[in-house]
Amino acid sequence: MTLVRNPLLPGCYPDPSICRVGEDFYLVTSTFEYFPGLPVFHSRDLAGWEQIGHVLDRPGQLDMDGIASSGGLYAPTLRHHDGTFWLVCTLVDQQDATRGGNFLMTATDPAGPWSDPVWLDADGIDPSIFFDDDGRVWVHGTRLARSPQWHDQTEVWVRELDPATMTLVGPEHVIWNGALLGVVWAEAPHLYKVDGTYYLVAAEGGTEFHHAVSVARADAVTGPYVGTKGNPVLTHRHLGVGSDVVGVGHADLVEAADGSWWAVLLGMRPYGGYHYNLGRETFLVPVVWEDSWPVLAPGVGRVTAEVEVPFAGTPRPGVAQGLASGTVPPDDLRWTSLRRPAAEFATARGDGWDVRMRQSTLSEPVTPAFLGVRQQHADVDVRATVRATLAEGEEVGLAVRQSEDDHVRLLLTASGTAVAVHRRGGVESVLGELPLPAGDEPVALTVRARGQDYALLVAVGEGEPVTVASVDGSALDSVATGGFLGLWIGVYATSNGRPTTTVVQVERFEYLPAL
């Protein structure tokens, strides 16, 4: 028996969905505006998770150009049936409600390639898919109630899918509005069939502090559904803002090969006050069945720091939970750009990249020259060693990114100065400047996070790092800024609107958790 650490996936891996094929588990999470999108993870024992690919990995699949931060890909559901993996998801453009919608993609190998999307005639968000044992297939999701009784009341609908034509057919059935009167955002619905009974697991309360998991059941897939008297069956909202994990919800259940049941779900770990810079992370709880109802985290009723998994082996260091430290090579699947492939502006070279500078900046909802990874630790050093000859107005740097309007940049200028800039609510302020010695030696730019203290350091050649400025990280998380994302840290290069042919050499990029 192995004690598995929570979270399973630290850092911004929200809205987990899981399925099992034989002895293998597969899991996918939301990615919003980042590309490639919808990472796919594999595990044999729920303890060691290894990323094997992405669902969205080529530009022709989906158009995310212009989609602002915290838009994009929401709440995927992953299922397997008759040799095919099925994924349903939502593309959200918060500025243009006519763009995007719910879509379906398939693959025979979860590592890819995945098909182009098939758009579904269904509004709302958080679609899921259920394969009944009579051969019928049902899609379900959530949307704002057509005749709401209160603000932000939603409804869960279900409708049959014809798998031959990939179209929704037959009547639509509204089956759920949440377990509690006045509840907002009954969402993230998933259907299961256990011993002939249909179960609906859904989130409610919004995806922040009041998040919760509720359960209902019915004799028919279209209802009527009746909730358990124990609803919500899991939440941390009664523990207060000082809890080590908050916002627990968005659960998906899976049965292991030995007959045991488990749930993956999201939660946030606040630190330095009520702030969660690492975003919404993926956690694991055991599930048992009592009186034909699922009981999540039996005996404790909450997400714990460790979970006993009887069939788990010993996780391999670095592979277990995406925690590999040291140099991040170009083929590491943690790398992401914004909205489109990094290949449009970057070429792998040894342990680093050649980054072709772009005119666009991090303050625009486009694809700037930016390559980053999720911040997965509260205490970490992230370092980019760069070499570039810059023209006037150009900059290369290391950014701590929340959104277009909220990020921090440690940058180099053509005049040989290191500058720290905080863009907060769309307004930029200079935090510090440091002249650097002339020469062509590489420059190491470092973000040193210790809790909510983010120090920005620079070193030339073999010189000692010097602090340019520090910033309070609590101004960068989604509690302070809004949105749904944790922080990314990455290298960028921009000419700030000027024509450019500059190529930046990123000689090395290191992610070093503090031990």
Q: Can you give keywords for this protein?
A:
six-stranded antiparallel β-sheet, mainly beta, 515 residues, 39 strands, 2 domains, Tachylectin-2, Chain A, 1 helix, eight-stranded antiparallel β-sheet
**Unreliable stretches covering 5 or more consecutive residues:** 317-322
Let me know the average pLDDT: 96
Got a strand count? 39
Compute the CA-based radius of gyration: 23 Å
Helix content: under 10%
Major β-sheet profile = 8 strands, antiparallel
What is the count of DSSP helices, taking H or I runs of 4+ residues? 1
| Structural category | mainly beta
Tell me the count of domains: 2
CATH class of the largest domain: Mainly Beta
CATH architecture of the largest domain: 5 Propeller
- Terminal CA distance reads 26 Å
Stated plainly, the CATH topology of the largest domain is called Tachylectin-2, Chain A
Strand content: over 45%
The 3D shape can be described as globular
Under CATH, the homologous superfamily of the largest domain reads Glycosyl hydrolase domain, family 43
